[in-house]
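Researcher: I'd like a candidate sequence for this fold, 349 residues long. If you have to choose between options at a position, lean toward the conservative one.
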Protein backbone atom coordinates (compact mmCIF):
# COMPACT_ATOMS: atom_id res chain seq x y z
CA UNK A 1 0.00 0.00 0.00
CA UNK A 2 1.05 3.57 -0.66
CA UNK A 3 0.33 6.11 2.05
CA UNK A 4 -0.95 9.52 0.94
CA UNK A 5 -1.66 12.60 3.00
CA UNK A 6 -5.13 13.98 2.49
CA UNK A 7 -7.77 16.40 3.71
CA UNK A 8 -10.96 14.65 4.69
CA UNK A 9 -14.33 15.60 6.07
CA UNK A 10 -15.51 13.30 8.86
CA UNK A 11 -19.24 14.16 8.83
CA UNK A 12 -21.81 15.90 6.62
CA UNK A 13 -21.03 19.27 8.19
CA UNK A 14 -17.55 18.63 9.51
CA UNK A 15 -14.48 20.75 8.85
CA UNK A 16 -11.58 19.36 6.84
CA UNK A 17 -8.82 17.67 8.77
CA UNK A 18 -5.43 16.36 7.78
CA UNK A 19 -5.35 12.56 7.60
CA UNK A 20 -3.64 9.70 5.79
CA UNK A 21 -5.21 7.33 3.29
CA UNK A 22 -3.94 4.19 1.59
CA UNK A 23 -3.62 3.86 -2.18
CA UNK A 24 -3.37 0.39 -3.70
CA UNK A 25 -0.01 -0.97 -4.85
CA UNK A 26 0.47 -0.47 -8.56
CA UNK A 27 -1.23 -3.09 -10.72
CA UNK A 28 0.15 -3.79 -14.22
CA UNK A 29 -1.80 -0.94 -15.88
CA UNK A 30 -1.74 1.56 -13.02
CA UNK A 31 0.13 4.82 -12.74
CA UNK A 32 1.04 6.57 -9.51
CA UNK A 33 0.41 10.30 -9.72
CA UNK A 34 1.91 12.85 -7.39
CA UNK A 35 -0.94 15.35 -7.23
CA UNK A 36 0.08 19.00 -7.49
CA UNK A 37 -3.29 20.75 -7.76
CA UNK A 38 -6.89 19.80 -7.10
CA UNK A 39 -9.86 21.93 -8.08
CA UNK A 40 -12.91 22.34 -5.86
CA UNK A 41 -16.19 21.50 -7.60
CA UNK A 42 -19.64 22.22 -6.18
CA UNK A 43 -20.28 18.47 -6.57
CA UNK A 44 -17.71 17.92 -3.80
CA UNK A 45 -20.03 19.88 -1.52
CA UNK A 46 -23.27 18.17 -2.61
CA UNK A 47 -21.59 14.78 -2.13
CA UNK A 48 -19.87 15.45 1.19
CA UNK A 49 -23.03 16.89 2.69
CA UNK A 50 -24.97 13.79 1.72
CA UNK A 51 -27.31 15.80 -0.53
CA UNK A 52 -27.22 13.16 -3.27
CA UNK A 53 -27.42 10.17 -0.93
CA UNK A 54 -25.73 8.63 2.08
CA UNK A 55 -21.94 8.83 2.26
CA UNK A 56 -19.23 6.96 4.14
CA UNK A 57 -16.90 9.14 6.19
CA UNK A 58 -14.11 10.08 6.27
CA UNK A 59 -14.45 11.37 2.71
CA UNK A 60 -11.65 12.88 0.65
CA UNK A 61 -13.34 14.75 -2.22
CA UNK A 62 -11.66 16.09 -5.35
CA UNK A 63 -12.14 15.10 -8.99
CA UNK A 64 -10.20 17.83 -10.73
CA UNK A 65 -6.72 16.40 -10.37
CA UNK A 66 -3.51 17.55 -12.03
CA UNK A 67 -0.08 16.11 -11.29
CA UNK A 68 2.98 14.22 -12.40
CA UNK A 69 3.43 10.51 -13.00
CA UNK A 70 6.02 9.21 -10.54
CA UNK A 71 5.76 5.46 -11.10
CA UNK A 72 4.18 3.15 -13.68
CA UNK A 73 2.96 -0.46 -13.53
CA UNK A 74 4.74 -3.19 -15.47
CA UNK A 75 2.44 -3.06 -18.51
CA UNK A 76 1.72 0.65 -18.78
CA UNK A 77 2.18 1.89 -22.35
CA UNK A 78 0.52 5.32 -22.43
CA UNK A 79 2.44 7.21 -19.76
CA UNK A 80 5.97 7.46 -18.40
CA UNK A 81 7.50 8.85 -15.23
CA UNK A 82 7.54 12.66 -15.43
CA UNK A 83 4.43 13.00 -17.62
CA UNK A 84 1.99 15.81 -16.78
CA UNK A 85 -1.41 14.20 -16.36
CA UNK A 86 -4.94 14.71 -15.16
CA UNK A 87 -7.74 12.66 -13.63
CA UNK A 88 -11.36 13.75 -13.62
CA UNK A 89 -14.56 12.36 -12.14
CA UNK A 90 -14.07 8.69 -13.08
CA UNK A 91 -11.28 6.23 -12.34
CA UNK A 92 -12.75 3.14 -14.05
CA UNK A 93 -15.75 1.64 -15.85
CA UNK A 94 -16.67 -1.81 -17.20
CA UNK A 95 -15.18 -0.98 -20.64
CA UNK A 96 -17.37 -3.66 -22.25
CA UNK A 97 -20.88 -2.24 -22.42
CA UNK A 98 -22.21 -0.39 -25.47
CA UNK A 99 -21.61 3.01 -23.93
CA UNK A 100 -18.06 2.25 -22.81
CA UNK A 101 -17.28 0.95 -26.30
CA UNK A 102 -18.53 4.23 -27.73
CA UNK A 103 -16.11 6.10 -25.46
CA UNK A 104 -18.96 7.36 -23.26
CA UNK A 105 -17.62 5.73 -20.11
CA UNK A 106 -19.44 8.28 -17.95
CA UNK A 107 -22.66 6.56 -19.01
CA UNK A 108 -21.31 3.02 -18.41
CA UNK A 109 -24.32 0.71 -18.23
CA UNK A 110 -22.69 -1.14 -15.33
CA UNK A 111 -21.89 2.08 -13.51
CA UNK A 112 -18.61 3.95 -13.81
CA UNK A 113 -16.38 4.17 -10.75
CA UNK A 114 -16.35 7.68 -9.32
CA UNK A 115 -13.03 9.18 -8.29
CA UNK A 116 -14.33 9.43 -4.72
CA UNK A 117 -17.23 8.02 -2.70
CA UNK A 118 -17.47 4.90 -4.88
CA UNK A 119 -16.37 1.29 -4.46
CA UNK A 120 -13.83 0.20 -7.06
CA UNK A 121 -13.32 -3.26 -8.52
CA UNK A 122 -10.82 -4.03 -5.76
CA UNK A 123 -13.57 -3.47 -3.19
CA UNK A 124 -11.90 -0.28 -1.96
CA UNK A 125 -13.79 2.92 -1.18
CA UNK A 126 -12.39 5.51 -3.55
CA UNK A 127 -10.92 8.74 -2.19
CA UNK A 128 -10.32 11.83 -4.29
CA UNK A 129 -7.84 14.49 -5.14
CA UNK A 130 -7.59 16.56 -1.96
CA UNK A 131 -4.54 14.35 -1.37
CA UNK A 132 -0.90 13.98 -2.26
CA UNK A 133 -1.04 10.81 -4.40
CA UNK A 134 -3.50 8.72 -6.38
CA UNK A 135 -3.21 5.40 -8.22
CA UNK A 136 -5.30 5.19 -11.40
CA UNK A 137 -5.47 2.79 -14.32
CA UNK A 138 -3.80 4.42 -17.33
CA UNK A 139 -7.01 4.28 -19.40
CA UNK A 140 -8.63 6.85 -17.08
CA UNK A 141 -5.71 9.26 -17.13
CA UNK A 142 -5.42 12.12 -19.63
CA UNK A 143 -2.41 14.07 -20.82
CA UNK A 144 -2.12 17.76 -19.96
CA UNK A 145 -0.77 19.73 -22.91
CA UNK A 146 2.53 21.52 -22.27
CA UNK A 147 1.12 25.03 -22.64
CA UNK A 148 -1.50 24.58 -19.89
CA UNK A 149 -0.17 25.18 -16.37
CA UNK A 150 -1.04 22.38 -13.95
CA UNK A 151 -3.00 24.66 -11.60
CA UNK A 152 -5.15 25.91 -14.49
CA UNK A 153 -5.49 22.40 -15.92
CA UNK A 154 -7.13 20.99 -12.79
CA UNK A 155 -10.59 22.59 -13.23
CA UNK A 156 -10.72 21.48 -16.84
CA UNK A 157 -11.02 17.88 -15.63
CA UNK A 158 -14.58 18.49 -14.42
CA UNK A 159 -15.78 22.05 -15.04
CA UNK A 160 -14.11 22.03 -18.47
CA UNK A 161 -15.37 18.70 -19.78
CA UNK A 162 -18.83 19.05 -18.23
CA UNK A 163 -19.46 22.19 -20.27
CA UNK A 164 -17.43 21.25 -23.38
CA UNK A 165 -19.37 18.02 -23.92
CA UNK A 166 -22.91 19.49 -24.14
CA UNK A 167 -21.68 22.51 -26.11
CA UNK A 168 -20.25 20.10 -28.70
CA UNK A 169 -23.18 17.70 -28.57
CA UNK A 170 -25.74 20.45 -29.17
CA UNK A 171 -23.59 22.21 -31.75
CA UNK A 172 -22.34 25.48 -30.25
CA UNK A 173 -20.77 27.17 -33.26
CA UNK A 174 -20.81 30.41 -35.26
CA UNK A 175 -24.38 31.56 -35.86
CA UNK A 176 -25.69 29.90 -32.70
CA UNK A 177 -26.97 31.83 -29.70
CA UNK A 178 -25.96 30.20 -26.44
CA UNK A 179 -26.97 31.30 -22.94
CA UNK A 180 -25.15 30.20 -19.81
CA UNK A 181 -27.10 30.28 -16.55
CA UNK A 182 -24.92 30.83 -13.44
CA UNK A 183 -21.43 32.29 -13.60
CA UNK A 184 -19.57 29.99 -11.22
CA UNK A 185 -16.95 27.32 -11.90
CA UNK A 186 -18.84 25.51 -14.66
CA UNK A 187 -20.55 28.64 -15.93
CA UNK A 188 -17.39 30.61 -16.56
CA UNK A 189 -15.89 27.65 -18.45
CA UNK A 190 -19.08 27.36 -20.51
CA UNK A 191 -18.76 31.04 -21.47
CA UNK A 192 -15.11 30.68 -22.48
CA UNK A 193 -15.62 27.43 -24.38
CA UNK A 194 -18.79 28.50 -26.21
CA UNK A 195 -17.04 31.72 -27.21
CA UNK A 196 -13.99 29.77 -28.44
CA UNK A 197 -16.35 27.56 -30.48
CA UNK A 198 -17.62 30.72 -32.18
CA UNK A 199 -21.08 30.96 -30.64
CA UNK A 200 -22.68 34.22 -29.50
CA UNK A 201 -22.79 33.93 -25.70
CA UNK A 202 -25.11 35.52 -23.13
CA UNK A 203 -24.68 35.18 -19.38
CA UNK A 204 -27.75 34.90 -17.18
CA UNK A 205 -26.60 35.54 -13.61
CA UNK A 206 -28.58 36.36 -10.48
CA UNK A 207 -27.26 39.93 -10.45
CA UNK A 208 -25.11 42.24 -12.58
CA UNK A 209 -22.23 42.06 -10.05
CA UNK A 210 -20.02 40.02 -12.37
CA UNK A 211 -21.02 41.71 -15.64
CA UNK A 212 -17.55 43.03 -16.47
CA UNK A 213 -16.05 39.62 -15.88
CA UNK A 214 -18.65 37.90 -18.02
CA UNK A 215 -18.01 40.20 -20.95
CA UNK A 216 -14.24 39.79 -20.53
CA UNK A 217 -14.63 35.99 -20.50
CA UNK A 218 -16.26 36.14 -23.93
CA UNK A 219 -19.98 36.88 -23.51
CA UNK A 220 -21.54 39.52 -25.75
CA UNK A 221 -24.45 40.18 -23.36
CA UNK A 222 -25.12 39.79 -19.66
CA UNK A 223 -28.46 39.92 -17.86
CA UNK A 224 -29.66 39.68 -14.27
CA UNK A 225 -32.24 36.97 -13.70
CA UNK A 226 -33.48 38.81 -10.60
CA UNK A 227 -34.96 41.36 -13.02
CA UNK A 228 -38.25 40.04 -14.46
CA UNK A 229 -37.74 42.23 -17.56
CA UNK A 230 -34.84 39.95 -18.56
CA UNK A 231 -37.32 37.15 -19.27
CA UNK A 232 -39.61 39.41 -21.30
CA UNK A 233 -36.77 40.85 -23.32
CA UNK A 234 -35.03 37.54 -24.11
CA UNK A 235 -38.14 35.40 -24.75
CA UNK A 236 -37.56 32.97 -27.64
CA UNK A 237 -33.92 34.02 -28.16
CA UNK A 238 -31.57 31.09 -27.70
CA UNK A 239 -30.66 27.94 -29.62
CA UNK A 240 -29.02 26.44 -26.56
CA UNK A 241 -29.11 27.21 -22.85
CA UNK A 242 -26.64 25.54 -20.51
CA UNK A 243 -27.90 25.64 -16.93
CA UNK A 244 -25.02 25.32 -14.45
CA UNK A 245 -26.92 26.41 -11.34
CA UNK A 246 -26.37 24.28 -8.24
CA UNK A 247 -29.80 25.10 -6.79
CA UNK A 248 -33.38 24.55 -7.91
CA UNK A 249 -34.54 27.31 -10.26
CA UNK A 250 -37.72 27.78 -12.31
CA UNK A 251 -37.06 25.75 -15.45
CA UNK A 252 -40.20 27.03 -17.17
CA UNK A 253 -38.94 30.59 -17.04
CA UNK A 254 -35.68 29.55 -18.72
CA UNK A 255 -37.38 27.29 -21.27
CA UNK A 256 -39.37 30.33 -22.42
CA UNK A 257 -36.07 31.85 -23.57
CA UNK A 258 -35.48 29.10 -26.16
CA UNK A 259 -36.12 29.64 -29.85
CA UNK A 260 -37.90 27.07 -32.05
CA UNK A 261 -36.17 23.67 -31.64
CA UNK A 262 -33.93 25.05 -28.91
CA UNK A 263 -32.52 22.92 -26.10
CA UNK A 264 -32.03 23.68 -22.44
CA UNK A 265 -29.37 21.32 -21.15
CA UNK A 266 -29.08 20.95 -17.44
CA UNK A 267 -25.67 20.24 -15.99
CA UNK A 268 -26.40 21.69 -12.56
CA UNK A 269 -27.29 18.91 -10.13
CA UNK A 270 -29.47 20.21 -7.30
CA UNK A 271 -30.88 17.45 -5.12
CA UNK A 272 -34.48 18.71 -5.56
CA UNK A 273 -36.55 17.73 -8.63
CA UNK A 274 -36.86 20.33 -11.39
CA UNK A 275 -40.40 20.57 -12.67
CA UNK A 276 -41.32 21.34 -16.26
CA UNK A 277 -44.73 22.25 -17.67
CA UNK A 278 -45.61 20.40 -20.87
CA UNK A 279 -46.54 23.73 -22.45
CA UNK A 280 -43.02 25.05 -21.89
CA UNK A 281 -41.83 22.41 -24.36
CA UNK A 282 -44.56 21.78 -26.89
CA UNK A 283 -45.14 25.34 -28.05
CA UNK A 284 -41.81 25.76 -29.80
CA UNK A 285 -40.73 22.08 -30.08
CA UNK A 286 -38.24 22.71 -27.30
CA UNK A 287 -36.08 20.09 -25.55
CA UNK A 288 -35.10 19.79 -21.92
CA UNK A 289 -31.95 17.69 -21.62
CA UNK A 290 -29.17 16.72 -19.25
CA UNK A 291 -25.50 15.91 -19.60
CA UNK A 292 -22.90 14.38 -17.29
CA UNK A 293 -19.16 15.14 -17.57
CA UNK A 294 -17.71 13.51 -20.74
CA UNK A 295 -15.85 10.38 -21.82
CA UNK A 296 -12.09 9.94 -21.58
CA UNK A 297 -11.50 10.49 -25.30
CA UNK A 298 -13.59 13.64 -25.26
CA UNK A 299 -11.80 14.87 -22.12
CA UNK A 300 -8.49 14.60 -23.96
CA UNK A 301 -10.07 16.36 -26.96
CA UNK A 302 -11.25 19.17 -24.64
CA UNK A 303 -7.76 19.60 -23.15
CA UNK A 304 -6.23 19.76 -26.62
CA UNK A 305 -8.93 22.26 -27.69
CA UNK A 306 -8.14 24.45 -24.66
CA UNK A 307 -4.42 24.30 -25.45
CA UNK A 308 -5.03 25.25 -29.07
CA UNK A 309 -7.50 28.05 -28.32
CA UNK A 310 -5.72 29.31 -25.18
CA UNK A 311 -8.74 28.63 -23.00
CA UNK A 312 -8.02 28.31 -19.28
CA UNK A 313 -10.11 28.79 -16.16
CA UNK A 314 -9.76 31.80 -13.89
CA UNK A 315 -8.55 30.33 -10.65
CA UNK A 316 -7.86 31.26 -7.07
CA UNK A 317 -5.11 29.02 -5.69
CA UNK A 318 -5.57 28.28 -1.99
CA UNK A 319 -3.70 26.29 0.65
CA UNK A 320 -5.12 23.09 2.09
CA UNK A 321 -5.99 24.96 5.29
CA UNK A 322 -8.40 27.18 3.37
CA UNK A 323 -10.76 24.48 2.03
CA UNK A 324 -13.55 25.16 4.56
CA UNK A 325 -13.45 28.86 3.83
CA UNK A 326 -13.50 28.23 0.08
CA UNK A 327 -16.55 25.98 0.43
CA UNK A 328 -18.37 28.75 2.31
CA UNK A 329 -17.57 31.20 -0.45
CA UNK A 330 -18.77 28.77 -3.14
CA UNK A 331 -22.07 28.38 -1.28
CA UNK A 332 -22.41 32.17 -1.19
CA UNK A 333 -21.86 32.37 -5.01
CA UNK A 334 -18.60 34.15 -4.21
CA UNK A 335 -16.23 32.14 -6.36
CA UNK A 336 -14.03 33.84 -8.98
CA UNK A 337 -14.18 31.37 -10.67
CA UNK A 338 -12.64 28.14 -9.38
CA UNK A 339 -10.73 27.39 -6.21
CA UNK A 340 -7.70 25.18 -6.73
CA UNK A 341 -5.84 23.62 -3.80
CA UNK A 342 -2.05 23.77 -3.93
CA UNK A 343 -1.34 20.23 -2.78
CA UNK A 344 2.22 21.13 -1.70
CA UNK A 345 0.55 22.82 1.32
CA UNK A 346 -1.09 19.54 2.43
CA UNK A 347 1.19 19.04 5.46
CA UNK A 348 2.29 15.80 7.13
CA UNK A 349 0.68 14.00 10.00
P1 LIG B 1 -20.55 27.01 -8.47
O1 LIG B 1 -19.14 27.38 -8.80
O2 LIG B 1 -21.04 27.14 -7.08
O3 LIG B 1 -21.49 27.81 -9.49
C1 LIG B 1 -22.89 27.74 -9.42
C2 LIG B 1 -23.46 29.12 -9.79
O4 LIG B 1 -24.88 28.99 -9.82
C3 LIG B 1 -23.18 30.21 -8.80
O5 LIG B 1 -21.94 30.81 -8.95
C4 LIG B 1 -24.31 31.17 -9.07
O6 LIG B 1 -24.02 31.96 -10.22
C5 LIG B 1 -25.46 30.24 -9.44
N1 LIG B 1 -26.35 29.98 -8.30
C6 LIG B 1 -26.05 29.42 -7.10
N2 LIG B 1 -27.13 29.36 -6.31
C7 LIG B 1 -28.16 29.90 -7.01
C8 LIG B 1 -29.54 30.11 -6.74
N3 LIG B 1 -30.09 29.75 -5.56
N4 LIG B 1 -30.31 30.66 -7.72
C9 LIG B 1 -29.77 31.01 -8.90
N5 LIG B 1 -28.47 30.85 -9.21
C10 LIG B 1 -27.68 30.31 -8.28
O7 LIG B 1 -20.80 25.46 -8.83
P2 LIG B 1 -20.13 24.56 -9.99
O8 LIG B 1 -18.96 23.85 -9.42
O9 LIG B 1 -20.02 25.35 -11.22
O10 LIG B 1 -21.26 23.44 -10.16
C11 LIG B 1 -22.57 23.83 -10.58
C12 LIG B 1 -23.53 22.65 -10.50
O11 LIG B 1 -23.14 21.69 -11.49
C13 LIG B 1 -23.50 21.89 -9.18
O12 LIG B 1 -24.83 21.48 -8.88
C14 LIG B 1 -22.64 20.68 -9.47
O13 LIG B 1 -22.89 19.59 -8.66
C15 LIG B 1 -23.04 20.40 -10.90
N6 LIG B 1 -22.09 19.61 -11.67
C16 LIG B 1 -22.60 18.74 -12.57
C17 LIG B 1 -21.75 18.02 -13.38
C18 LIG B 1 -22.31 17.12 -14.43
O14 LIG B 1 -21.60 16.22 -14.87
N7 LIG B 1 -23.53 17.34 -14.88
C19 LIG B 1 -20.37 18.16 -13.24
C20 LIG B 1 -19.88 19.08 -12.32
C21 LIG B 1 -20.75 19.82 -11.54
P3 LIG B 1 -24.44 33.53 -10.31
O15 LIG B 1 -23.85 34.16 -9.09
O16 LIG B 1 -23.81 33.97 -11.58
O17 LIG B 1 -25.92 33.61 -10.34
ZN1 LIG C 1 -17.17 18.27 -10.60
ZN1 LIG D 1 -19.46 0.11 -19.34
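Model: Candidate sequence:
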Amino acid sequence: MITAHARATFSSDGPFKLTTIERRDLQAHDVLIEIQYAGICHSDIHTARGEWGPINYPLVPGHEIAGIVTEVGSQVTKYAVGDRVGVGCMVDSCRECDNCRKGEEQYCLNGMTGTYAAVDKYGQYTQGGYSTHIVVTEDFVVRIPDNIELDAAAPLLCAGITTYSPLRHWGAAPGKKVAVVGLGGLGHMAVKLAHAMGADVTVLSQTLKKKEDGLRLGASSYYATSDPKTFEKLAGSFDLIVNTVSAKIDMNAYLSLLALDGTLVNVGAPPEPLSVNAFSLIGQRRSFAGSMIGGIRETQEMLDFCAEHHVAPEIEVISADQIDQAWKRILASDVRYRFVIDISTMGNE
